[in-house]
Structure formats: structure tokens, C-alpha cells
UniProtKB/TrEMBL annotation:
Gene: Wdtc1
Region (Disordered): 650-671
GO cellular component, as recorded: Cul4-RING E3 ubiquitin ligase complex; cytoplasm
Taxonomic classification: Eukaryota, Metazoa, Chordata, Craniata, Vertebrata
Gene3D superfamilies (UniProt xref): Tetratricopeptide repeat domain (1.25.40.10), YVTN repeat-like/Quinoprotein amine dehydrogenase (2.130.10.10)
Entries under Pfam families matching the protein: WD40
PANTHER family with a match to the protein in the record: WD AND TETRATRICOPEPTIDE REPEATS PROTEIN 1 (PTHR15574:SF40), WD REPEAT DOMAIN-CONTAINING FAMILY (PTHR15574)
Protein name: WDTC1 protein
Top-level taxon in the UniProt lineage: Eukaryota
Length: 671
């Protein structure tokens, strides 16, 4: 097999071990390898769905857990089953982990019976059984810096910490989400930062992902116990369960606003998987009911909402992202509670012309746009943006393509691109108008009106264009609509972020944390995640060059991380792909799902010309998944049972957004 060949080459290569390791880590996942990725083997042994996979640190062992309540340890390089044991669980296993520094001897499992079990593989015995959770255990997390410690996330809303050095067979509650979000909140997933094991990320029901400082939490509780007045509180003196600064929230900026609409359509938002990049600087989230999101933990940004750009003078300037000769302010500062404009004036640098090869890519994107190939246009613009990140025209054009495609989240990405274009050139005419349209489509109706008025003031020659008149009519109709007034977003963050039921009441501390949330850096589209709540997304490659995710259509999707472009789709299951675990050192991927098998994938030899697992029509698969995500839940259930639903198998991928009105001359085509 490919992996064995790589191992052999590295063993005989007359290069120092460190140099060989560096070469291996840098080149073990490359674009040619991704494009040759195919099925190597199927590991048979389970009799139920395989819900979890885990490599050991060396990558020579693979553990799996299943609905059959068994765990199997495989030798994946030789496709052999080394060990199979019943875990003692009485329901589906959802998580399996090797305990660090145990010589791969200790394995931990969590299951739907609310139990966490610790197994000694050398004697095939369950040595510890923890029954402290009161609902299904969905994930286990471990950390090298904490060799005898691990954590669990369960649907009782608790994150528990275990220390195997203690004589007690109990665990302690590290985080209680019910104190913040009410009794209905469920913890679904968690992971520890591989570079700094003090940081723990938690995904739960709802669109918010939480990052906790474990050390701060422990120090806070230790100081509380040592305080002389620890047990004495007045009526107004409330002890916080977590210290200030111990938690940071992340959310895709458009999701809190969309949440009421999703709830009305029984579309559930829940983080089904979270993981850190190998260097610990990025957090990847598979958001059930939505897309895959990447958050930058170093260069954080607030959600992009409530913008009114600084006015500029149009005389003597070329519009739509081209050269500007007058120095004007681009002073856009982004905050979670609005867009604030700086008072200072900054010089706008002349727009640098694109080099010939990027100009060709832009022209190809424009041609795709003209042919209404929206996704192709977006991918080409994204490829150019990666190479020329300071070109306003590329952002403006990509925004137009997003607005035409109208997939979930596209109008918000378009808004982000409009803001970027305006920050690079404040007199980008089309970006200003598209911004107003995006605000309207995102239900920021009052802000859209103000932005449109601002546009008319900046560009009076466009004030009575057909596009302006159409958007003006749409905005005024929405403002006077009773239903839209009832959901008015002008009140700000707390209205959008607060729950209404008694059992899911949100605490004031939770409100503050949500209002301080940070936005995403990248969004990955194409897959569907609505049917199961254990669907994973992972970084692929030691430098996190690619993103992989399972899907409800039985495929798994691979994107370039930096461009967000979809590069490969492979059929990984007859029904649903839930688990994808990349090998720690090689271009080797293990997947599982509803089928009772584990599948292994690696680059196939160039002599193998036929790969029946490749989904050639990636665009068609992505469109079908968009329709699936927006379908009635009953239709999806019938589809999964094998019934053909016309609305899901034909027609366009419109999502839930309304069609744009006539665009007129300011928005009809890219620049």
C-alpha cells in the first residue's frame, strides 16, 4: 500500500531523522495526492454503525467504536483486526480515545448509556466505569500535558473532568452549561488545544462555540475554597461559576439573526464537531444545520453588522475598485455592537493592476458569472483573492456572485466582501450598493435604508436608477410589514441572542459572552449536516492545508483551506459519512458512517485510471445538499428511507432567501 511504501522510503533514506521528519510533514499531503485519493481497503468487523475513530500518536493503531457496543483496535497499515472487545456499554458508543502516555494500553469510551468506561487493552478488561452523567455522552477529549486526565461532554449540558490517579471513581464538573443556558442545553463535542493544553473548546446546541481556559477555572475555584468568606454571601453577592476572562465565544455572524427562522422551520443549529489546527491557532467547527466554519484565534474579528461607511467625494476618482486619486478616509472599525467610523483621514493607495495570470483568472470568473455559473465564479475569484488580497475589485465581484447564488450564508459573505472592498477603496460604487442589498437580505431593514440613503448621497447620479428604486420599494414594504416589525433587529444584540422559554432562559453572564463573540475567517460549503449530530470536520495535512467533512449524502468533501474551494468529493458510505480522522503523519484517511465498516483512503497509483468512488459532478452534489438542508424535515426523512421527493431531486438551489429584485445598472455584472 501507499503508506507502507512511504514508511519504507523514509526508513532507508540516508537523511538525518530530523530532516526526514521535516520532509515528511511538509509533503505528506499535497494537491496531487488529494486528486489521486481513493479507497484502499474496507475493514470488516463491526455489526452496527461505526460512530467514532481514533488514531494513536504513532499512527500504527486505529480504534473504532460502534452501535454494537464493541471497540476494535486495528492495524490499518496491514488491514488487520488486532483486538475486539465488548466495552460493557449498553447503548451506542459515540467516542473512543487512547489515553496519552499509557503506551496505547488504556482506551476510553463514552456512550449513549450516559457512561464513560476506561479499558485496559492488554487484558481486555474494563477497569473503571463512571456513571456521573445523566444523558448521552457524545465526546471524550485527552491532552498530552495531562497524562492521567480526560474530559467528557454529554447531553446533560455538563463538561466533566476525570483524574485516574484519584482513588475515587467519580468525576468533577468543570463546566456546567445549564447555569448559563438553561436546562435544555446539550453539550455535543469538545477538544483540547494541541499546543496549549490549557484551552478547551466546547460545541453545544445553538450556534455559539465556546473556548475555555482550564487553568483559570481551576485557579478560580481553588481561590474560592481558600477564601475565608467563601461560604458567606449577601443577597446581591453572586458567585460566578467561571471567572472573567476564562471563556471566549465564537459564532458565524449571521446565525444569531437567522436562528428564529431556522427554529420556525425545525432546522436545528448545533455544533457537531470542533477541532484545533495542528499549530493551535485556528478552530474548525462543523455546524449542524449549516456549514463548516474556521475561526482564527490569533487575529480575531467581531461580526460584520450595522455598517454605514464614511462618505467620500466621487469627483476625480475612478469607481468600482479601480484607481482613486483623492485621499479619503476608509476608517471602518468593526465591533460586535455596530460599525464605528474613525474621524481621521487616510490616504487611499492607488489600486495595483493585476498581473497577467491573475487578470486571466478574473476574466474567467467574469465569464463564469455571465454564464450564471455562480459557484465556479466564486471559486475563481477566491483563487485570485488569495494571490491579490488587496484588490477591491475582486472582492466586489465575488460579492456579486455570492448574492446571485443565494446559498445559506452567501449574503453574509457578500456583505463581508463589500466591506473589504470599501475599506480598500471607499468609492467603490457597486460595493456600496450591494452592501445595502445585503443588509436588507439579512433582515437589517432599518440599516439597509440608512445605507441606501448614504449611497444616494455619495452617488447622486445613481439615486433614481431602477436598482435603487427597486431596493427602496423592498425596504419600505418591509418596514411597514407587521411581521417584519415584530422581528425588528434594530434593538441590537440582546434581542437576537436571548432565548424566550423558561427552561432555556439565558443568564446575564451568557448574554455578555455572546455579545462579545468573534466571527469566522473562512466558510466551507457543499456538504449537508442535518441528520446526525456526530458529523466531523477535520484539518488534513500537518500544515492544515485542507479541510475534510462528512455529509448526509454519503460523500465526504475536501476543500482547500485558504481559498475555501472544493477540490474533491468521494463516496464514503451508502448513507451518511460521520467520521473522518486523518493519519497523524501520512496522506491516509479513515472514515466511517452508517455502514458497519471502516474505510481507508490514500493516493492511488497513477496506473489506476478508474476510481468509482469519485463524485465527478461536485457542483451538482453541492446544490443537492443545499436543497436538502432547506427541505422540510419530513421530506428529508422520507428521502433517507429511499423515497424520491421532487423538490429535493430537481430544480435550483435557492435556499431560504427571496430572489433579488431588479438590479439595474449598479449591480448587474462584475467589474
Amino acid at each position: 500500500c501507499f503508506v507502507c511504501c512511504v514508511v519504507s522510503v523514509l526508513l532507508v533514506c540516508p537523511v538525518q531523522e530530523r530532516g526526514a521528519l521535516g520532509f515528511e510533514r511538509h509533503y505528506h499531503v499535497t494537491d496531487p495526492f488529494i486528486r489521486r485519493l481513493g479507497l484502499e481497503a474496507e475493514l470488516q468487523g463491526h455489526s452496527g454503525c461505526v460512530n467514532c475513530l481514533e488514531w494513536n500518536e504513532k499512527g500504527d493503531l486505529l480504534a473504532s467504536g460502534s452501535d454494537d457496543q464493541h471497540t476494535i483496535v486495528w492495524d490499518p497499515l496491514h488491514h488487520k483486526k488486532l483486538l475486539s472487545m465488548h466495552t460493557g456499554h449498553t447503548a451506542n458508543i459515540f467516542s473512543v480515545k487512547f489515553l496519552p502516555h499509557s503506551g496505547d494500553r488504556i482506551l476510553i469510551t463514552g456512550a449513549a448509556d450516559s457512561k464513560v468506561h476506561v479499558h485496559d487493552l492488554t487484558v481486555k478488561e474494563t477497569v473503571h466505569m463512571f456513571g456521573d452523567h445523566t444523558n448521552r455522552v457524545k465526546r471524550i477529549a485527552t491532552a498530552p500535558m495531562w497524562p492521567n486526565t480526560f474530559w467528557s461532554a454529554a447531553e446533560d449540558g455538563l463538561i466533566r473532568q476525570y483524574d485516574l490517579r484519584e482513588n475515587s471513581k467519580r468525576s468533577e464538573v468543570l463546566i456546567d452549561l445549564t447555569e448559563y443556558c438553561g436546562q435544555l442545553v446539550e453539550a455535543k463535542c469538545l477538544t483540547v488545544n494541541p499546543q496549549d493544553n490549557n484551552y478547551l473548546a466546547v460545541g453545544a446546541s445553538g450556534p455559539f462555540v465556546r473556548l475555555y481556559d482550564i487553568r483559570m477555572i481551576h485557579n478560580h475555584r481553588k481561590s474560592m475554597k481558600q477564601s475565608p468568606s467563601a461560604g458567606v454571601h449577601t443577597f446581591c453577592d453572586r458567585q460566578k461559576p467561571l471567572p472573567d476572562g476564562a471563556a471566549q465565544y465564537y459564532v458565524a455572524g449571521h446565525l444569531p439573526v437567522k436562528l428564529p427562522d431556522y427554529n420556525n422551520r425545525l432546522r436545528v443549529l448545533v455544533a457537531t464537531y470542533v477541532t484545533f489546527s495542528p499549530d493551535g491557532t485556528e478552530l474548525l467547527v462543523n455546524m449542524g444545520g449549516e456549514q463548516v466554519y474556521l475561526f482564527d484565534l490569533t487575529y480575531k474579528q467581531r461580526p460584520y453588522t450595522f455598517l454605514l461607511p464614511k462618505k467620500c467625494h466621487t469627483s476625480g476618482e475612478v469607481q468600482n475598485g479601480k484607481t482613486s486619486t483623492n485621499g479619503v478616509s476608509n476608517g471602518i472599525h468593526l465591533h460586535s455592537n455596530g460599525f464605528h467610523l474613525s474621524e481621521g483621514r487616510a490616504h487611499v493607495s492607488p489600486q495595483v493592476e493585476l498581473p497577467p495570470y491573475l487578470e486571466r483568472i478574473k476574466q474567467q470568473a467574469n465569464e463564469a458569472f455571465a454564464c450564471q455559473l455562480w459557484t465556479q465564479a466564486i471559486q475563481l475569484y477566491s483563487k485570485a483573492v488569495q494571490k491579490a488580497p488587496n484588490n477591491a475589485m475582486l472582492y466586489g465581484n465575488r460579492a456579486a456572485a455570492y448574492m446571485k447564488r443565494k446559498w445559506d450564508g452567501d449574503h453574509y459573505d457578500a456583505l463581508r466582501d463589500c466591506l473589504k472592498a470599501i475599506s480598500l477603496n471607499p468609492c467603490h460604487l457597486k460595493a456600496h450598493f450591494r452592501l445595502a442589498r445585503c443588509l436588507f437580505e439579512l433582515k437589517y431593514v432599518a440599516e439597509a435604508l440608512e445605507c441606501l440613503d448614504d449611497f444616494k448621497g455619495k452617488f447622486p447620479e445613481q439615486a433614481h436608477s431602477s436598482a435603487c428604486d427597486a431596493l427602496d420599494r423592498d425596504i419600505n414594504a418591509a418596514l411597514f410589514s407587521k411581521s417584519d416589525n415584530a422581528e425588528d433587529k434594530k434593538g441590537g444584540g440582546p434581542i437576537r441572542l436571548r432565548a424566550t422559554g423558561r427552561k432555556d432562559s439565558i443568564s446575564e453572564d451568557e448574554m455578555v459572552l455572546r455579545e462579545r463573540s468573534y466571527d469566522y475567517k473562512f466558510r466551507y460549503c457543499g456538504h449537508c449536516n442535518t441528520t446526525t449530530d456526530i458529523k466531523e470536520a477535520n484539518f488534513f495535512g500537518s500544515n492544515a492545508q485542507y479541510i475534510v467533512s462528512g455529509s448526509d449524502d454519503g460523500s465526504f468533501f475536501i476543500w482547500e483551506k485558504e481559498t475555501t474551494n472544493l477540490v474533491r468529493v468521494l463516496q464514503g458510505d451508502e448513507s451518511i459519512v460521520n467520521c473522518l480522522q486523518p493519519h497523524p503523519s501520512y496522506c491516509f484517511l479513515a472514515t466511517s458512517g452508517i455502514d458497519p465498516v471502516v474505510r481507508l483512503w490514500n493516493p492511488r497509483p497513477e496506473s489506476e485510471t478508474l476510481n468509482g468512488r469519485v463524485v465527478v459532478d461536485m457542483e451538482g452534489a453541492s446544490q443537492a445538499n443545499q436543497r436538502r438542508m432547506n427541505a422540510d424535515p419530513l421530506e428529508v426523512m422520507l428521502l433517507n428511507m429511499g423515497y424520491r421527493i421532487t423538490g429535493l431531486t430537481s430544480g435550483g438551489a435557492g435556499g431560504s432567501d427571496d430572489e433579488d429584485s431588479s438590479e439595474g445598472q449598479v449591480q448587474c455584472r462584475p467589474s
